[in-house]
TrEMBL record:
Its main location: nucleus. This is tRNA (guanine(27)-N(2))-dimethyltransferase. Gene3D superfamilies: N2,N2-dimethylguanosine tRNA methyltransferase, C-terminal domain, Vaccinia Virus protein VP39. The lineage of its organism: Eukaryota, Metazoa, Chordata, Craniata, Vertebrata. It comes from Anas platyrhynchos platyrhynchos (Northern mallard). Belongs to the class I-like SAM-binding methyltransferase superfamily. Trm1 family.
Length: 724
């Protein structure tokens, strides 16, 4: 292919000999009226900086000066009839011919200045010059494209055709924090960061901090509850052994690690990691903002000036820039938190590779579309689980994540003890304790089982242990939908975690830490989790154990204060195998009183035409029937109980009251016009001193009439039947 030939600088023709403008016309505001092509070409220095385009000016007078117009000159020239024809500096000759000064003034004002885009005191006026070269043609020559009106970006020198697109282009620069211009004559000040405060910790973020795809400093205020739960779990671990090394593998703004270091201080050694360079810079600035010392590459940063004249803080935070898998393979930690954007299955193997014995691994999964059965193929791809949408889909999501965690830990000869599992609207949080050894790994792997789910009544049960194929797996379900309904009625889900989702003792200690650090938003959730772990109602909530002297009451709930000094001495004085043996014994004793798996939604199983009882009253009815019962955080109208679905519905129907569907509202009962008892109603009301059986008979007759009205029973026949 032939190399492209340079474009001829002059046009031939009898009309004009004015040279063509260069591909990019750049000059300063004090440049001559019509600069030469050499002067208009980009001026690249050693720093690769550009001069601003002639269409970017601060005032209209500067734009008129480019056209050779001075203030008051065109009015004087018109009066003296000495006005000369002058061309427009932003339009080619064929688009706007040279004209008198007063016409050129109106042209610049109306067609260039008024439709400009303003940014940081500068106006990016519309330009009609052929400022962009096209690709070489078949001959190899470069020609100007037929380009219409366009704008030149003051920040990146891009050429944008439409004004609305230019405004959006500038806004994207601002959201990314790119407000410093490349031009020598147009430096723009840096954008001020927005400072947010959470739990006495300040973080500065970019204006678009809520969009993870477009920013390096992603911060979600809705995850505050998640951060507080993780902090409480770390605070409990910090009471067991000091100091502990903890890792925030995906720092973003670093707010989680800053909260750990600011409140727990010398009890923890915090490491905040992120693979993005801009995020690492942001984390360092946030450390300085909270008066924390930063440690980079095993060298402590001398940031006395960054700390300012305020109170000196001896806390040091290590900030690293590497992949999360790399740092977890290289170093050992006592506490690891994973909060990637989406699924966390890609980091589980490295997380359990070097985590210390009896350490804690917490992970936050935000891929709720796959976990909540909205994208079932993604759940099969990431977690290897077959799921469908059920009434207990949130607990199903938590058990899916725990099953993936258990399999990853077993590959590293480690078992897990689930301490906490929370599934809310925006995330699924799982906190597990690591138990080293092949025996705990085998015990954890055995708890990953399949679930049989009936698609008609939504009854469910875990498959029995063993590898033998059953002749009729429908017999395991408590319901008889397979015999009464045509076709296949059940589906196999999983594999899922079939063990407990909570550790009662750990949750009580988390509640104590939440009270101690004043985390008011977390306390109601932790109280619900404790009740759910024990499968009891809030009225029966109490602390059982030999350490009753360490109990304190908070908002009607007993909280046990852990004896941290004795426990810490015991942990440090024992051998590792003895600690693991005692932990396994504690886990086995806790499993003896495990909470029932899954829950029922009272609205899903309500009877049509019946008013179901209040939820708290219904819990009492189930408890009086001899079943374990509690509310659940997974569903505000969910009931966790060991009662079968048939007994659940029987008790629900027993204590439900009929609803009059013929326009009757809630409240006192009113008879309709077709009830032929008008004479009996006042009689029953006036003769209150008579036998009470009359009122009772009247109420029963009215109730029977309302129930059987649809079956066209008359009041007389009901009365006749009642008399019999």
């Amino acid at each position: 292919r032939r190399a492209p030939q340079p474009l001829a600088p002059l046009r031939s023709g009898p009309e004009t000999d004015r040279p063509l403008p260069a591909p990019h016309c750049y000059c300063s505001s004090s440049s001559p009226p019509r600069p030469s092509p050499a002067a208009q070409s980009p001026a690249r220095g050693p720093a690769a900086l550009w001069e601003k385009h002639i269409s970017i000016q601060r005032q209209l007078a500067e734009l008129e000066k480019l056209a050779g117009l001075s203030e008051g000159e065109f009015t004087l020239a018109v009066s003296l009839k000495t006005d000369l024809h002058k061309p427009c500096p932003l339009c080619p000759e064929e688009k706007f011919k040279a004209c008198y000064g007063h016409k050129l003034h109106r042209h610049l004002q109306n067609l260039h200045w008024k439709i400009s885009v303003e940014f940081e005191g500068y106006r990016m006026c519309i330009c009609h010059l052929p400022c962009r070269l096209v690709k070489p043609n078949l001959v190899g020559d470069q020609t100007f494209s037929k380009m219409g009106a366009h704008y030149h970006c003051i920040i990146c020198s891009a050429t944008i055709a439409r004004r609305t697109d230019m405004i959006g282009h500038i806004n994207r620069h601002v959201n990314k924090g790119e407000t410093e211009s490349r031009f020598i004559t147009a430096p723009a000040p840096k954008s001020s960061y927005q400072v947010l405060k959470e739990s006495d910790t300040d973080v500065q973020v970019l204006p678009n901090y809520s969009t993870p795809q477009k920013t390096d400093s992603y911060f979600n205020p809705k995850m505050k509850l998640n951060r507080q739960l993780i902090f409480c779990a770390l605070a409990v671990l910090a009471e067991e052994r000091k100091p502990i090394e903890c890792l925030d593998a995906f720092g973003a703004t670093g707010i989680m690690g800053l909260q750990w270091a600011k409140h727990l201080r010398n009890s923890v050694k915090v490491t905040i990691n992120d693979c993005n360079e801009n995020s690492v810079t942001m984390i360092q600035e946030n450390c300085h903002l909270n008066k924390m010392k930063v440690k980079l590459n095993t060298k402590e940063e001398n940031n006395d000036e960054a700390l300012g004249g305020g109170e000196q803080n001896t806390d040091t935070i290590e900030v690293t820039k590497m992949d999360a898998n790399v740092i977890m393979h290289m170093r050992s930690f006592d506490f690891i938190h994973l909060d990637p954007f989406g699924t966390s299955v890609n980091y589980l193997d490295s997380a359990f590779r070097n985590v210390r014995n009896l350490g804690i691994v917490s992970l936050t999964s935000t891929d709720i579309s796959s976990l909540y059965a909205k994208a079932q193929h993604v759940a099969l791809r990431h977690y290897g689980c077959n799921i469908v949408r059920t009434e207990y889909y949130r607990e199903l999501a938590a058990r899916i994540v725990i099953a993936a965690v258990a399999r990853a830990a077993a590959r590293c000869n480690k078992g897990i003890e689930v301490l906490l599992a929370v599934a809310l609207e925006h995330f699924v949080l799982v906190v597990v304790r690591v138990l080293r050894g092949p025996s705990p790994a085998d015990d954890s792997a055995k708890k990953v089982r399949y679930l049989i789910h009936c698609q008609w009544c939504e009854e469910r049960i875990f498959q029995k242990e063993g590898n033998m194929v059953e002749e009729n797996p429908y017999q395991q379900l408590p319901c008889d939908c397979h015999g009464s309904m045509p076709g296949k009625t059940a589906v196999v889900l999983g594999p899922l975690w079939s063990g407990a989702l909570f550790n009662t003792g750990f949750l009580r200690r988390m509640l104590f830490e939440a009270v101690q650090y004043g985390l008011d938003e977390t306390q109601p959730l932790l109280k619900t989790l404790v009740c759910e772990a024990e499968c009891t109602t809030l009225k029966n909530f109490s602390t059982h154990g030999p350490y009753d002297e360490n109990k304190q009451e908070e908002c009607g709930v007993y909280i046990k204060t852990p004896d941290t000094s004795a426990e810490s001495c015991v942990l440090h004085g024992k051998k590792n195998n003895e600690v693991v043996r005692n932990t396994a014994k504690r886990q086995k004793s806790d499993n003896s009183a495990e909470h029932p798996a899954f829950y029922y939604n009272i609205h899903r199983h309500s009877i049509k035409g019946m008013n179901m009882p209040k939820l708290n009253k219904f819990l009492n009815y189930l408890s009086e029937a001899g079943y374990r019962v509690s509310r659940t955080h997974f569903d505000p109208m969910g009931v966790r109980t060991n009662a079968p679905l048939a007994q659940f519905k029987t008790i629900l129907v027993k204590y439900s009251t009929p609803t009059y569907t013929g326009g009757q509202a809630e409240g006192p009962l009113h008879l309709t016009e077709d009830v032929h008892m008008g004479d009996q109603v006042p009689a029953a009301a006036d003769t209150k001193s008579e036998d009470s059986q009359c009122n009772q008979w009247f109420n029963q007759t009215t109730t029977l009439y309302i129930i059987f009205k649809e079956h066209k029973y008359s009041v007389n026949s009901l009365q006749h039947e009642h008399e019999k």
